[in-house]
Amino acid sequence: MISFQALQSVADVIVARRRLYKQRLGLCHLNAKSIMPLAANSIRNSLKSRSASSHSANPKDTDQLRPSATLADLRRAASGCRACDLWKAATQTVFGEGAAKANIMLVGEQPGDQEDRAGHPFVGPAGKLLDQALVEAGIDRSEVYVTNVVKHFKWSPAERGRRRIHKKPHYSEIQACRPWLDWELEIVKPQVLVCLGASAAQALLGKDFRVTRQRGKLIEFSLAPHVIATVHPSSILRARDDESRHSQMREFVNDLRQAARVVKRKRSVH
Ligand code: SF4
Fold it and tell me: Which of 58, 177, 209, 258 has the fewest CB atoms in 10 Å of its CB?
């Protein structure tokens, strides 16, 4: 049984956050009553799957999902999440990773093929490019937290061969996964939230948001003291030639420098 207190805790946090930006996202209809099933679903399914996979479902798990929950508690609970169908074709949940009190949180769309196999975010080619860009921007990756709006890899088989082709998650899947990201934000409390790519930016800032028009700008939004949107590093890998790739990389690094400047300013004030 999932305790009512555990559900209430999850719902309270989500509702409080939704209230802050409901106008921007047009989520005025969401309230504790409508959020509760969402929170309940994530937790219930995660417990169900833990017992199904021969781990004993410990009633204490629900207690861990209180405001005092840690990232490790969340990661454990999310490992068995069945709140949407994406877990079926994926290898495992790829939860966020990084410093628990990181100043910068980077949010992408979803794990890719290599992340799905490894169980860690941003470890594939796009992750390596991100590492390089962070170094160039003067940001230490050990000081950031990286995650995705959707925690399972959505893919379809290639017409030929055994490649798994990335598929964009549906709005309903992004919404189903949202409680996990809200919890990550709640615990990490980053100074700067960086949305990587249009999917992450639109999931977090609203579907009218255009990265092409607003990239690299500091946006006022309730999710974090500062929010910046930029491209996803995988788009740089798809550049048509070297010249274009170098130029896109320069712009990407400049966007990340903006985040670095905010953190530096904050440090110099304290
Ligand atoms: S994508 Fe998110 S909501 Fe869907 S099963 Fe995975 S962790 Fe749960």
Answer: 58
